[in-house]
Design a protein that fits this description.
Layout: H1 13-40, E1 43-53, E2 56-61, E3 64-70, E4 73-74, H2 83-94, E5 98-106, E6 112-118, E7 121-122, H3 123-129, E8 134-135, H4 143-155, H5 168-173, E9 188-191, E10 196-198, E11 210-214, H6 217-222, E12 226-227
Parallel strand pairs: 3-6, 10-12
Antiparallel strand pairs: 1-2, 1-5, 2-3, 4-8, 5-6, 6-7, 9-10, 9-11
Length: 235
């Protein structure tokens, strides 16, 4: 009978190590999705240290700097009409201030995509109402943003004061308004520092700071630019 109760044979150390590693790997596998979810579906606070353009800012949090892409909108590019105004507006609201970010996603550039709130204001809504951003309907169906854009259009605020505003996504892809032919005289170049715009025959048409593109003279004037005196008739 005593042979039936022999002590259990001790398992090899290699087996025990392998079993431990498998257990740790399983635990990481179970926890890793939670970490990813926490990064893209959470609310965070931080201090805005820089503004790249109207819809991208950098936030300092826990000794790390996070790049945030404002959700639901698309502001004009910096070399597009009203691009610098959008950046100035965002800077005036956020720079060197504490903000709250409702993180919704992470984009292909690694930026967190989220709704930004400061002093009780929704930056996405504020930019659209000022006519400094489009409702980015490719990625957002938010009825609040849709209504804000409707109001801005009706008031001809900001970019809506232009005769043919070009959405930034079309501008980036080089798409021109179908109703306007600029091939004869070419687009106008605005100097974002001096706020002067030039026609293609202007001496300074390709100057270093002439990076703002306008389709028409009316668009340039509405954006607060004035014609260059060396190649435009004075008004």
């Amino acid at each position: 009978m005593s042979g039936m109760f022999q002590p259990a044979r001790q398992l090899p150390k290699q087996f025990l190590r392998a079993k431990t590693l498998v257990s740790i790997g399983l635990l990481i596998t179970l926890l890793f999705p939670i970490v990813l979810t926490a990064q893209t579906a959470t609310t965070l606070t931080g201090f805005v240290v820089s503004v790249t353009d109207g819809d991208t800012v950098s936030v300092r949090r826990d000794r790390a700097t996070l790049r945030i892409r404002v959700e639901g909108i698309d502001t004009p590019e910096l070399n597009q009409a009203f691009g610098h105004q959008a950046k100035t507006f965002t800077s005036s609201l956020l720079l060197n201030k504490h903000i709250t970010v409702d993180v919704r996603d992470r984009d292909r550039y690694g930026r967190l995509v989220g709704r930004i709130y400061v002093d009780g204001r929704d930056l996405s809504v504020a930019l659209i109402l000022q006519g400094l951003a489009w409702h980015y309907t490719r990625y957002s169906s938010d009825p609040t943003l849709a209504e804000a854009e409707r109001q801005a259009r009706a008031a001809q605020a900001g970019l809506w004061s232009q005769s043919a505003p070009v959405p930034p996504w079309d501008f980036r892809s080089g798409v021109l308004p179908p109703q306007e032919d600029v091939s004869v005289r070419g687009p106008l170049h605005g100097n974002h520092r001096s706020r002067v715009f030039h026609q293609p025959n202007c001496r300074n048409y390709t100057c270093q700071h002439c990076t703002v593109i306008f389709r028409t003279t009316e668009d340039a004037l509405e954006a607060g630019f004035r014609p260059a005196g060396d190649c435009h008739p004075r008004r």
